[in-house]
Amino acid sequence: xxxxxxxxxxxxxxxxxxxxxxxxxxxxxxxxxxxx
Length: 36
Description:
It is a single chain. The chain has one domain. The protein has 2 helices and no strands. By secondary structure, it is mostly helical. InterPro entries: Ntn_hydrolases_N.
């Protein structure tokens, strides 16, 4: 049970990090450069 809670916390933290990276304009520019 404790392990499951820890795993969920890690997943949520990772999602938050990915979202903040995607929101950051500098990162979006890098993604566009790679895409083009």
